[in-house]
Amino acid sequence: xNKWIFIFSFFGLIHLGISAICxxxxxxxxxxEIPSRELGQALIHEHILVDFIGADKTDPSRWNKKEVxxxxxxxxxxxxxxxxxxxxxxxxxxxxxxxxxxxxxxxKTGIHFITNTGYYGAVDNKYLPPHAHTESDRxxxxxxIKEWKEGIDGTGIKPGFIKxxxxxxxxxxxxxxxxxAAALTHLTTGLTIASHTGGYTPASEQVAxxxxxxxxxxxxxxxxxxxxxxxxxxxELAKEGVWVSLDGIQPNxxxxxxxSVKNLKEAGLLHKVLxxxxxxxxxxxxxxxxxxxxxxxxxxxxVPLLLENDFTEDDIHQLLTENPARAFTxxxxxxP
Length: 336
Known about the structure:
four-stranded parallel beta sheet, 45% helix, six-stranded parallel beta sheet, single chain
C-alpha cells in the first residue's frame, strides 16, 4: 500500500512540476492567457487607435467602435495572410487604450492582441492624469497591479505588459516615479516593462533605477531605441540584458534599420532585438480616423532586405517569433 502511495505521490509531484513550468511560460492576451509558444510571429509595437486630445479630455465616447472596426479590420486580417499571429498594442491608458475594441478585433480575426497597464509621461506629461503627479510610486503600482488582478475598467481583460514613457532627456523626478512604479508592478506581476524612451541617456538611467529596485535588465524593453544614433550604445545595453526595440520601420528608412539590426547581430546580440512598425493609428479627431498606416512593411520589404544581407531564415524566426515570445512571457525577473 505504501508503495502505491509513493508512486502516485511521485507522479503527482512530476505533474505539479510540469504545470508550474507551463504556467511560467505564458503570455496574457485580451482573450486570456496562452502558452508563449502559441504567440506565433508577432509585431511588438503597433497601434490600433490613439487619441491625442490629452488625459483630461479623452474618453471612449470620442470614437465609434463600429467605425473603428470597419476601418481597421482589413489591415489586421492581412496579418494572417502574412503569417503573423499576434500584435502587441502599445496605446496606453489616457491615450486611447480600449481593451474591448481590441477584444472584438481579435475575435473577428483570430489575431492575438496584447494590451497594457501603466502611464505615459512623454510629451511633457500631457497624457498623465492628475493623480499621477500626487500619488506615490506604490500607489500608482497598486492601480496597475489591480488591473492585472481584476482586469481593466471592469472588463475582465487583463494587461500583458507594462507601458510607461519618459521624455528623451535625463529623467525628471516624476518620470523616475513612473519607473519605480513599473518596477514595483513587475515584481508583483511578472509583466515586462516597455518604456517609450528614445535616446541612450534616459534608457540607461531607467536601467540603473530598475536594478536599484531589484529588477533585472531583461525585464525592460528600450522602446524607440532607433532614437539613439550611437549604435555602440545599443550593444552596451543589450549586453546587460535589455531588449533593444527598433520599432519604426517604414519603406523610407529600411537601410537605417538594416544597419542597426546587423550591428547587433554581428555583436552576437540578435537574441535581444525586437522589431516593429509603430504603425496603424486610427485618430478619433480626424475624419474616418485619418490615414491608417498598414502593418506590412516588415514582411514585404524588410525581411527580403535582411535575407539579401546575410540574414538566414533562422534569424528571421528569432526576430519575429522567438524574441517576442521571450520578451513578453510573464515571469518575475528579480535580482537575487
